[in-house]
């Protein structure tokens, strides 16, 4: 399953800025759209105006003005403005300036009729010219451009020449028309601004509708993809879960028949070992599935802190054992990250490297990197290098997928289930890091990622241990018969299995299905050990029961049992002096708990 990234939504100011930018781009696209027949009609009307004034006033002046109009018409019709793709804030501003200039040239050429065709001696021609230019203004105000600054400048350049000439050289009636032209200019400015604002609102609504539609389609596609991924995940999980379950069922039948027919001890022991391996494979898979579920549900919140890398890497190398892991890490390597999640990432990468490196060594390496964008200006590059089988280039993209094992096509359960790197991918997403892979067949693999360096002087927290464990005796020590063990477990099959094992060890189990039943019926003073399942029916869970038992008998050895033992549960158990056993409980772990209780009984009680 692919987790949904928990990325923060962009700030409101950024969203508003992006929306405004998109509207401005659309307004500019509308403003430079080809006019086609309208441009031809306008040109023919201009020719008519030129002919009229050539006949009534001056052919030369009319031809000069018509030549100007012809030039700008050719410019607009045959040499349109080309917009950049894609738009950026910088090239949008440049395109707006270019559009404003072209629009100003267009309207200024038409407006020069107010100078070239102005006849100082004939008031009726002056009045006719003024009316024609005002008509041009009304017709072109909402067609020459939709970009407000360009349109307002165009109106001004179209009317300003005739207004100035009329006030300077015109007859009284023309002066009145010029004053009206000034008012008309102001009114047109306001109308253009209002019209542009309404247009932008309509464009914004259309863009919002388009965005919502695209988001809905994207959400539908993402949902379908997630559903397909989820189906693939559960199909693969179902397959791999059934494998050990089938093995357990078959080996159990083999064991039954061997015991029925008195098969020799060596064959029985072999069958029992096979049962144990199948159970271990089933437990490993369920643990990984649980971890994936916890990561995707974000159950464990991240707590970034300064983490010393060298102690963490050396501890991981020591736990892996066999002397196959080398560590190369500067002593001052301190990263700012979540220590628990980082340990899980490194553990899975290290486990993957060891599985697919039958011979040779694995190197855990850390080196400093410069990162100018970081607060500290530094970062630490962490690498897990192996000399194993390597991964072909065409397979590297899918090694982080669920249930993918490039080097284990036969699905050998000893090499895991293909979930280790899938867990790494999910944890890396939570940590905000990207795990890179460099590999070639037969030449090993290098998994690497970068961590931000902690600020100078930051106190490094100790690297967390994988679990909080108490000092327990050796499981092979002699267990004294007769220990009284309280078993509180609501699952009948699990309760019967625990009881059978305890009786085999000559221990006396007292089995109850709920906390209330145990508190009401059990002889607490006679108990030596309490095994409390955490999830119990009724008002009290296993932790509440354990607290009451500890109050009633402080010397009682208590173990919490659950399939979901969290770090918080482990810490609580360690603080109270209890034990925490994860289901399925391993017999050796349970035996150590009983031996610990036996040791406590043998210790002398301090005299008051």
TrEMBL record:
Catalytic activity: ATP + protein L-histidine = ADP + protein N-phospho-L-histidine
Keyword Phosphoprotein (UniProt): yes
Domain named Histidine kinase: residues: 236-455
Source organism superkingdom: Bacteria
Any one GO molecular-function label of the UniProt entry: phosphorelay sensor kinase activity
Keyword Transmembrane among UniProt keywords: yes
Annotated CDD domains: HisKA
Entry protein name: histidine kinase
Native source species: Variovorax paradoxus
């Amino acid at each position: 399953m692919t987790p949904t990234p928990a990325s923060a939504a962009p700030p409101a100011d950024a969203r508003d800025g992006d929306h405004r930018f998109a509207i401005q781009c659309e307004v500019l696209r509308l403003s430079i759209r080809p006019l086609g027949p309208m441009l031809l009609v306008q040109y023919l009307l201009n020719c008519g105006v030129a002919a009229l004034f050539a006949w009534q006033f001056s052919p030369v002046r009319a031809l000069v003005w018509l030549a100007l109009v012809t030039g700008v018409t050719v410019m607009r019709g045959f040499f349109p403005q080309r917009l950049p793709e894609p738009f950026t804030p910088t090239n949008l501003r440049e395109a707006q300036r270019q559009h404003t200039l072209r629009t100003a040239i267009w309207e200024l050429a038409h407006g020069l009729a107010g100078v070239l065709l102005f006849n100082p001696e004939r008031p009726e021609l002056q009045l006719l010219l003024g009316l024609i230019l005002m008509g041009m203004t009304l017709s072109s105000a909402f067609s020459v451009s939709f970009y407000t600054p360009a349109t307002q400048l165009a109106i001004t350049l179209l009317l300003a020449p005739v207004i100035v000439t009329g006030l300077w050289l015109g007859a009284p009636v023309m002066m009145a028309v010029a004053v009206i032209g000034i008012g008309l200019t102001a009114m047109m400015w306001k109308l253009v601004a209002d019209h542009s604002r309404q247009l932008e609102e309509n464009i914004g609504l259309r863009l919002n509708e388009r965005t919502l539609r695209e988001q809905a389609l994207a959400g539908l596609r993402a949902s379908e993809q997630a559903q397909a991924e989820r189906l693939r995940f559960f199909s693969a999980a179902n397959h791999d879960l059934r494998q050990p379950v089938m093995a357990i069922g078959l080996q159990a039948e083999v064991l039954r028949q061997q015991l029925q027919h008195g098969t020799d001890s060596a064959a029985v022991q072999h069958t029992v070992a096979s049962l144990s391996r199948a159970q271990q494979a089933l437990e490993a898979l369920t643990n990984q599935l649980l971890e994936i579920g916890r990561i995707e549900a974000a159950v464990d919140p991240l707590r970034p802190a300064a983490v010393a890398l060298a102690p963490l890497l050396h501890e991981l190398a020591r736990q892996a054992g066999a002397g196959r892991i080398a560590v190369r890490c500067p002593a001052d390597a301190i990263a700012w990250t979540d220590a628990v999640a980082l340990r899980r990432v490194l553990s899975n990468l290290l486990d993957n490297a060891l599985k697919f490196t039958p011979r040779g060594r694995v190197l855990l390496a850390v080196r400093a990197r410069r990162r100018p964008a970081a607060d500290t200006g530094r970062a630490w590059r962490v690498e897990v290098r192996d000399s194993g089988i390597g991964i072909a280039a065409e397979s590297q993209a899918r090694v982080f997928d669920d249930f993918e094992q490039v080097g284990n096509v036969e699905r050998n359960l000893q090499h895991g289930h293909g979930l280790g790197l899938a867990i790494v991918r999910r944890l890396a997403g939570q940590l905000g890091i990207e795990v890179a892979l460099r590999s070639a067949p037969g030449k090993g693999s290098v998994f690497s990622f970068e961590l931000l360096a902690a600020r100078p002087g930051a106190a490094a927290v100790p690297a967390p241990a994988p679990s909080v464990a108490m000092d327990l005796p050796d499981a092979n020590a002699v267990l004294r018969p007769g220990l009284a063990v309280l078993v509180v477990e609501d699952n009948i099959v699990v309760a019967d299995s625990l009881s059978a094992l305890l009786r085999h060890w000559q221990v006396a189990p007292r089995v109850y299905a709920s906390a209330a039943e145990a508190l009401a019926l059990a002889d607490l003073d006679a108990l030596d050990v309490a095994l409390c399942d955490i999830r119990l029916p009724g008002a009290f869970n296993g932790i509440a029961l354990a607290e009451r038992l500890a109050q009633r008998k402080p010397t009682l050895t208590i173990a919490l049992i659950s399939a979901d033992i969290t770090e918080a549960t482990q810490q609580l158990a360690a603080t109270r002096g209890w034990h925490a056993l994860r289901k399925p409980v391993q017999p050796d772990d349970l035996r150590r708990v009983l031996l610990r209780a036996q040791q406590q009984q043998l210790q002398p009680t301090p005299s008051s």
